[in-house]
Amino acid sequence: MRLITARLFLLAGVLAQGCTGVLAQQSLEVQQHGSSTDQAPASQDAEADGSALIDQSTLPSAIELKGSRPRVDPSAVKPAATSLPEPLSSLGATPSLALPNKTSEVRIRELRPLSLSEVEQLAEVNSPSLKAAASVVEQAKSNLLAALSAWYPTLSLKSSVNFAGDEGRSNSENYQQITEEYTFREEWITNFDATLNWNLIDPARVPQIASARDTFEKQRDTYLIALRDLRLNAADLYFRLQRADEGVGIGQNAVRASLVSLRDAQSRLQAGVATKLEVLEAETQLARDTQSLTLALAQQNTRRRNLAQLLDLPQDVTPTAADPVQIIGIWQPSLEESIVAAYAFREELDSLILDISINNSNANAALAAVQPVINLTNTYQAIRREGQSGVTIDNSVDWTQHSWTSANTVGLGFTWNIFDGGRAWAQYRQNKQKAQQSEFEFASKRDQVRLEVEQSFFNLRASNQDIKTTSIGVLSSRESLRLARLRFQAGVTTQREVVNNQRDLKQAKTLYADAMLKYNQSMIQLSRRTGLDQIAACDSLELSNKKPKDDLFDSAEVPIKPSPLNPACKASILQAE
Prior knowledge:
CATH topology: Outer membrane efflux proteins (OEP)
Order of helices and strands: HHHHEHHEEHHEEHHEEHHEH
Family: Belongs to the outer membrane factor (OMF) (TC 1.B.17) family.
Distance between the termini: 66 Å
CATH superfamily: Outer membrane efflux proteins (OEP)
Keywords: Cell outer membrane, Membrane, Signal, Transmembrane, Transmembrane beta strand, Transport
CATH architecture: Up-down Bundle
Region (Disordered): 64-96
Shape: elongated
Largest sheet: 4 strands, antiparallel
Protein name: Possible RND family outer membrane efflux protein
CATH class: Mainly Alpha
Low-confidence stretches: 1-44, 571-577
Pfam families: OEP (PF02321)
Number of strands: 8
Mean pLDDT: 83
Structural class: alpha+beta
Strand content: 15-25%
Radius of gyration: 42 Å
Number of domains: 1
């Protein structure tokens, strides 16, 4: 009877699917063969409720929104710290050219707990990369001042002091009478020239100054990008360090739990109610947890040194995380608001617009090579002679004799390189093509900006759900391990069940810590990539003033004995083989 009923339900399901398919096919045919009058109301309704596709050609241009030469707004970002407060004054950056050459100079002498705000301050003050970016801005500013000098005339001075001395002998014959004359000259000649040159018309001057000004603005954008990336990297490394600390705590609790399990198994073996296999399983799990703890400690040390490298701390200081792991807050803006804010906020897009302007200016400067240049010059020259020339050998030089002459010349010059083989026009086209390339790069960067915001937003949403899911998993695994231990102590189950539940609890804690890390990372990435700071603080929880025990029974009081670091070639398994 049950078999017949099941077959009837199966047949009814097949018929229902067939009818559904026929209706769907008929609906599709009606849509395909429908008249245009039937489709018009649907499109009008779509436009009315905003679900219709937008004509991309009607979107506003970036040049219209930001301008052809966008300027940096320093008020849009919090300026970088320039000095350290008193508690952090001893953590100043190591001199740039310092290079330790003794082991005592690099030995770690202090583990310094730091909060997230202190880490950001140290990064802004000590970071060599941020200082290098600031130096590039100053270089661009100097280059702009050099370009602005083309508006002013140039004045060059030239002076020389020469000593001239010569002698000569001449013979003349007149009426069979030979006359010999011997002369020499000694005199000091002083020359002074002053030339004033001013280009009245120079076609290359304006585009070169415009290019230098846009380059300066671009470097300022680059500095702001470096500052925001530095803050993002500092927060990211701090969260990773917190995650490494959590990993060490998880590993320590797992080792303690394994020690409790091993103690229980050995006690039951001595009482004759357990087998050697259960003791071996407990020892195997203890070895696994010890290995995980070793890897967690190594990762913790690596994370600390990664943060120290970013902060450029003194050679003998290692930072540690002082803040506990907690949720930063709740992201308030929607996905669409975050995307639009990122388009208006990101300096990367402004830099590409400036690249377009720079390439256009360079194109005009290249074309100026075949355009006329008119310059005004004024040259002043003065010559002073002191001494005597043309005297006989019997007379001495009269140094009181001197002469002085001066001249001033004013000229108007005209230069026009009419033909240069097409070089100027070729460079003009090249720079115009570079400007077009920057437009394509702008489109690519625009799509990348949106994708980055969407990825962070989706990861934040997934991490939010993962925190809830994994927290439930931790509580369930903890209760399962408690029940498994009670069953094992009562002799109802084996050590294998305890080991499996203990492993599940460790994995659940690891997943929960990873979810917390991904949530905070996605939060700071959204803040960095959108420029928004609309983060609502989490509601405060009413917690007890006593710290709850993380593990079951008395496992928290179980000491973890340090194991010696023996060479790898002396492992027990190798000796046994």
